[in-house]
Amino acid sequence: MPGRSVRPLSRGDARSAAGGVLDLIVQRPEGLYCPPGDFYIDPWRRVERAVITHAHADHARTGHGHYLATAVSEGLLRARLGADIHLQGLAYGETVEHHGVRLSLHPAGHVLGSAQVRVEHQGRVWVASGDYRTTPAGAVPDRTCAPFEPVRCDVFITESTFGLPIYRWRSDAELFGEINRWWQDNAETGRASVLSCYSLGKAQRILAGVDASIGPIVCHGAVEPLNRAYRAAGIPLPDTLQVSDVSDPATFRRALVLCPGSALGTPWIKRFGDFSDAFASGWMQVRGWRRRGGLDRGFVLSDHADWPGLLGAIGASGAERVIVTHGSVPVLVRYLQEQGLQAESFDTEYGDETETSA
Amino acid sequence: MKRFAALFDELDATTATNAKVAALRRYLAEVDDADAAWAVYFLAGGKPRQLIRTAQLRAQAIAASGLPEWLFEASYQAVGDLAETIALVLPLPQQAEGMQSRLSEWMEERLLPLRGQGDEAVAMALGAWWRELDAAGRFLLVKLVGGGFRVGVSKLLVQRAIAAHAGLDAKLVAARMMGFTDSKRSPTPAMYRALVAPAEAAGDAQGGRDPSQPYPFFLASPLGAETGDDLVPLEIASRGTAQTMEARLGPASDWLAEWKFDGIRGQIVKRAGQVWVWSRGEELMSDRFPELQALAQRWPDGTVLDGEILVWDDGDPATPRLPGSERSGGPAPFALLQQRIGRKTLGPKVLAEAPVSFMAYDLLEAGHDDLRQVPQHERRLRLEALAATLNATPGPRLWLSPLVPAEDWATLARWRAQARPLDVEGLMLKHRESAYGTGRQKRGDGQGLLAWWKWKIDPLTIDGVLIYAQAGHGRRASVYTDYTFAVWNRTPVSAAEAQAVVEAIAQRRPADPNGLQLVAFTKAYSGLTDEEFKAVDAVIRQNTLEKFGPVRSVRPTMVFELAFEGIARSSRHKSGVALRFPRMQRIRDDKPLHEANTLQDLEQLLADKAP
Hints:
The complex is a heterodimer of chains A (358) and B (611).
Chain A: E1 26-28, E2 31-34, E3 39-41, E4 49-51, E5 66-70, H1 74-81, E6 87-90, E7 95-98, E8 101-107, E9 115-121, E10 124-128, E11 155-160, H2 172-188, E12 193-196, H3 202-209, E13 217-219, H4 224-232, E14 256-259, H5 267-270, E15 276-280, H6 287-293, E16 297-299, H7 307-317, E17 321-327, H8 329-338, E18 342-345
Parallel strand pairs in A: 3-4, 4-5, 5-6, 10-11, 11-17, 12-14, 12-15, 13-14, 15-16, 17-18
Antiparallel strand pairs in A: 1-2, 2-3, 7-8, 8-9, 9-10
Chain B: H1 2-12, H2 17-30, H3 33-43, H4 54-65, H5 69-79, H6 82-89, H7 103-111, H8 119-131, H9 135-146, H10 155-166, H11 170-177, H12 189-196, E1 218-219, E2 221-222, H13 234-239, H14 242-249, E3 255-259, E4 264-271, E5 274-279, H15 290-297, E6 303-313, E7 330-331, H16 334-342, H17 348-353, E8 356-366, E9 369-370, H18 376-391, E10 399-400, H19 409-417, E11 426-431, E12 439-440, E13 452-456, E14 460-471, E15 480-488, H20 495-506, E16 518-524, H21 530-542, E17 544-548, E18 551-554, E19 559-564, E20 566-569, E21 577-580, E22 583-587, H22 599-609
Parallel strand pairs in B: 1-12, 2-13, 8-10
Antiparallel strand pairs in B: 3-11, 4-5, 4-6, 6-7, 6-8, 8-9, 11-13, 14-15, 14-18, 14-19, 15-16, 17-18, 19-22, 20-21
Helix pairs in contact in B: 1-2, 2-10, 3-7, 3-12, 4-8, 5-6, 6-9, 10-11
């Protein structure tokens, strides 16, 4: 049983089992905590000082005293958490020092402005990677966010959302070819192509990846403000329409419609008449998930690392100790242990094993 | 394989029936008869007899994937389908030249010749084939070996597509397709051509069909089905009075009532001097049942009978006969029949311990004449006449399903109430004027009354507590849908006492052997809607205590009403009982945990059953 070896460290225990050296990051009821620096990383309860890896709601929560995040994500964070939050923005690679802890943020390749947090104290380096997506060798990097950069460290804290070998992403070229074909086929038969996806990050990656010459692109009201934030951050996206911009309903018949999953089954969706529906998520890799959704198509599009990506990132970090968070925790811990690494886990409140937006 | 993979993708990529029919038609129009035959066979539910043992398939996949076994298993648990797991974890293929070979070539030149080969030859072949197929091809290869294509395509839909493709009536295609998916016969181009031949080409009495071919089975609908049919609603079917039944179904004298047996529905075909025994699942079972071969050899040529295949317990002459029956003894438990079917070799001992007999209830063909449009009561008379003639000469006797003697609904209701101790499932009601139809009669087609109805006894029920959960397969992969339920070992003294047990379980304290305990007694995984499963799944995730591989132990909070058809003592279960066909009838949100049932309640059900 894989679960047996996965004992989360007792809460607040800052002392490594190995021998007396203080851990740089520990788990506390509020979230991941850096004792010497006295700050939290993506805390799920209100704290005084929070370092935020990216703007997704399970990582960036409201009500903290001070926020530190990448400068690129500032627009997104203020849009989501309030314009008046105390937020310090850092460039990727820029270092700040706090209570003798050197802190810097490095690209995680997940969404616009997403970062891994590097902390260094008395010669030891820990990296908390938040959510990340690696770019396979030879692949064209995602142009909607800075691609993941491996950071050497002693201890690497990794997510494990898709921590099973069944998750291997195909190239973006293949994937977007498939989405374009679906859109094209629908457009030719006069049906709208409704593609539901996570509004932040995934939607913009789709916008940047599809062939916009096929037809108009309509975005739901939950998606459009995030498109604006991306454009404002200098990411070029094809032109998008909102429903209110469209006077002739015939426009919808060739359109690609991007909306959050929650919009399916609402009156909003009825205006598109006879449409084909699809969902974009890494979970669509498994046929059972696809069929359960009852949608026409499921596209395997994720902003997380696949299995080779996770193992690659862990390897590239050079860390001998790995702490696994949210996702397929027992599996990844056991696998890493069998590879000879010191692996353990943190209990976090990121993600949700029932959510399908990843 | 490439073309078949494309068809599979098209079928899998849409939920629209018309799009599926269109995809099938395009396929049938493009491929030759051999490929069409195999595609129809698989999509209509055909499963070739096992070509490669699942254990070997799995072992071979693990070796080829280079994964540790536990990780392959964890992957399988997440995917819920072996073929798909294999396709997802094997190393990516370099080129996929195997995709160029046609479906029929794969089946006839590669897969079928594998049967009976040694493990090493199978391993070699599998390894080589996986290397020359892409992910879609690997997935299909494993499915071809084991069957089980679930792409939302029913046999009916395949028939519709063939009918549209060939310009035929779908009913004719359905009749011609009887037996097409039999696991012991490979589909041939000739068989496919017979499916799509023009209607007028049907020259002889058999309509150009193979002499072995059975008729489509006429299926009975349940009275008081919980969903849909309001012909006789549940409360009336369950506790109905003579008046309410009469108001719904007319006088009892319009109906022939028979016992509903718990066996295997079967058709025995005697034509061209040969005998074929077909199950309702259209499996040819002739060689499983030499008794039935011997029985039907005595019939005149061109005879087809519908009836129930049963293991009959002749018992001692003192055993009361089934009311209405001339035969002593009664049906043996279904488990005996099941064991008997599982036997590879039928030695004299097996034949003596579990003798199979046929309880005939309908005559579909006599003297090569199709009698299906003849009214029910006339068919019955002709069946009785046939039995009288046959039974006048020495040899195996043709037993008829006895008519339950009753002139009114009140009497029938009383007989129905007797069903469980008599080892039957209730009553069958067949309208005197009913023809022998095809499949299940649809409501609202005006034929509602002139049909067959099963008036089953109400299931037994018990309220159990959910204690373990496991994820399902296929569409239910990664959703917790397979549950284990427990009852109390005695009635809790109070809610607080029950709560203390829950707390002890939550803290992983071992159960007090002398105190109150929850005792697992059954598993169940059906009966809830998708929405209900989703809700229960969420509760399970929030209340998980421990994970044992794919199984989670759950803090006991939820009570379910479980329905089942029978109960028997079992030494293999910790609770000492085994249930037949347990399923979840409803979630008892209204029921506090300490009011769930007890082992004593199960004992009482056992005692009630004893005559």
